[in-house]
């Protein structure tokens, strides 16, 4: 029995490592799209301000994890603190999608730049969501 449990643990570690590689790959694609949206001909660097939203978006969810039960954080746990943190996260994500649209409407950026930035937002926020769904509990990270 001990042998099979050890093999099962190693398979679990390999799956977690594959997810970490996937997250790194998605994050690099998202940042590449962001750089492309800013660096192509006749574009400017104003859209890089969405990086602030990328940094701020996981913070309320991490705080909200501490507001729920001590065991682990799931989507079903609810408290006023956790609900407030989900609301703040939603505001940050909507702002990240709204900033390029407002910049396009005020003619600061072009439509191609807005498309690249929106694509980057989609990929980066998908990466953040996968991270929190995979490594949501405190005991989900194995000891290497």
UniProtKB/TrEMBL annotation:
- What's any GO biological process attached to this entry? late endosome to vacuole transport via multivesicular body sorting pathway
Tree of life domain: Eukaryota
* Membrane-crossing residue ranges in chain numbering: 20-39, 45-63, 84-102, 108-132
Location relative to the cell: Membrane
Question: What is one term from the GO cellular component aspect held by the record?
Answer: membrane
Q: Name the UniProt key words of this record, in alphabetical order.
A: Membrane, Transmembrane, Transmembrane helix
InterPro entries noted in UniProt? Vps55/LEPROT (IPR007262)
Topological relation to the membrane, as annotated: Multi-pass membrane protein
Task: Classify the main location.
Answer: membrane
Q: Does the keyword Iron-sulfur apply?
A: no
Is Transmembrane included in the keywords of this UniProt record?
yes
Can you tell me which family this protein belongs to? Belongs to the OB-RGRP/VPS55 family.
Q: What is this protein called?
A: Vacuolar protein sorting 55
Query: Which species is this record about?
Result: Rotaria socialis
């Amino acid at each position: 029995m001990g042998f099979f449990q050890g093999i099962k643990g190693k398979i679990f570690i390999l799956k977690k490592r594959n997810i970490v590689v996937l997250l790194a790959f998605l994050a690099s694609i998202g940042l590449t799209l962001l750089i492309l949206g800013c660096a192509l001909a006749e574009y400017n660097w104003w859209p890089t301000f969405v990086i602030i939203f990328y940094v701020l978006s996981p913070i309320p969810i991490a705080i909200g994890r501490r507001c729920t039960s001590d065991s682990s954080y799931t989507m079903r746990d609810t408290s006023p603190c956790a609900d407030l943190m989900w609301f703040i996260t939603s505001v940050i994500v909507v702002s990240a999608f709204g900033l390029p649209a407002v910049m396009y409407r005020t003619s600061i950026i072009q439509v191609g730049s807005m498309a690249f930035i929106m694509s980057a937002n989609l990929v980066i926020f998908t990466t953040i969501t996968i991270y929190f769904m995979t490594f949501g509990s405190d005991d989900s990270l194995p000891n290497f």
